[in-house]
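Title: Prediction job returns without error message
Component: structure pipeline
Severity: low
Priority: P3
Assignee: unassigned

Description:
Job completed but the reporter wants confirmation the result is attached to the right record. Sequence as submitted:
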Amino acid sequence: MNRLSNEEKQITRSYARGEWKSVKNRKAEVRRYRSYVRDALQKSSRVNIRISPQDLEGMQQRALEEGIPYQTLMASVIHKYVAGRFVERRA
């Protein structure tokens, strides 16, 4: 008997509610996320920061939605900000 984890059950319910949408330009999206990972992996220093539990949870949730590790997402946000490419979107 296959038992689903709570996370798998949540994903299954989300899919059943129609919350998942196809990506319009999959190749471009894959290239975009590969560039995020490439940028994040080109790190040369390690830092420790303190953030609120709510911000960490929010970052982890966003990363889950994007399908990338939350550390990669955090590095990407910082990199985009420093490079002047960070654009804020309203939810």
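Comment from assignee: result matches the submitted record. The chain has a mean pLDDT of 87.
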